Amino acid sequence: xxxxxxxxxxxxxxxxxxxxxxxxxxxxxxxxxxxxxxxxxxxxxxxxxxxxxxxxxxxxxxxxxxxxxxxxxxxxxxxxxxxxxxxxxxxxxxxxxxxxxxxxxxxxxxxxxxxxxxxxxxxxxxxxxxxxxxxxxxxxxxxxxxxxxxxxxxxxxxxxxxxxxxxxxxxxxxxxxxxxxxxxxxxxxxxxxxxxxxxxxxxxxxxxxxxxxxxxxxxxxxxxxxxxxxxxxxxxxxxxxxxxxxxxxxxxxxxxxxxxxxxxxxxxxxxxxxxxxxxxxxxxxxxxxxxxxxxxxxxxxxxxxxxxxxxxxxxxxxxxxxxxxxxxxxxxxxxxxxxxxxxxxxxxxxxxxxxxxxxxxxxxxxxxxxxxxxxxxxxxxxxxxxx
Length: 387
Ligand code: SF4
Prior knowledge:
Helix content: 40-55%
Number of domains: 3
Structural class: alpha+beta
Bound molecules: iron/sulfur cluster
């Protein structure tokens, strides 16, 4: 019999992490929150901003209040150790958030709302399920649940339909508001201004989703070993440093002998990766993508954006007050672009003249470089013996 204090409280993050048993267990075992990756920290900052922004809108009885965006995002980021890395991105996302949001005028509205439920999904202790919703508000007998995504990944409609996150939160809300008829769930991909929406009935929550959550949790708790299972979830895994697969054959370097062995391995791996890359690309080019676990490696459309009219951008930035030399540096012309623009032959003279304007700069680059003959000392064979 599991004592209440030993019962695992499952959040949607933990449930998702069960796709890799090692990760699932590492999350359960972890003591205290640590600093996440910049992507995760950015999410934390945006959520802190959103909470204050909505609270202020409600206080002022306004549906939007963009005049507060700069002040509130600065407040949210002020004490953050990763402030210099996060500031520009955080500000951009905060604006996208505020410009895309109409704060509903409701008395039953919550931001960063933590809810718990017991084993049977009733609002009792001890908790078996726990979650913190980004935003929820009640409209008649329908709860609107919103989740804001600050990452670069834009999930498809079908991925969002299969995602457990908002159905999990809906299950919690239903535990506290059993008379709810339905849930209107929205995932907001802030970077792209895209919203994925699904509607769930209370019946669907009870009959489909709750049994699913229970089976994920029960299956994990019944495991006696927790093997690492790589997949697309590795992309946002928070326990990478302790992952047995990620660190296989790679131990921290503690002395010169290990450093030499690591340098040798690094050199070989680099070469192998480039050969592997070429042959895999050639294979995928003629045979299509290759399935690995829940991922498919191959050629996929990768949208990109570029400025057609560089001069218009330059003029706009300089007119806007950015010093010319800073703009030049960012929009700089590269050696290879000059070579492409001015092929040898007809344009040879101009090409030479343009390349004569190149300025040489030296900055440290991590690479392998042939040593000069003088620098190569006669090695002591014993010293070179690698472990
Ligand atoms: S990196 Fe991947 S395989 Fe390793 S623990 Fe994380 S999810 Fe599992």
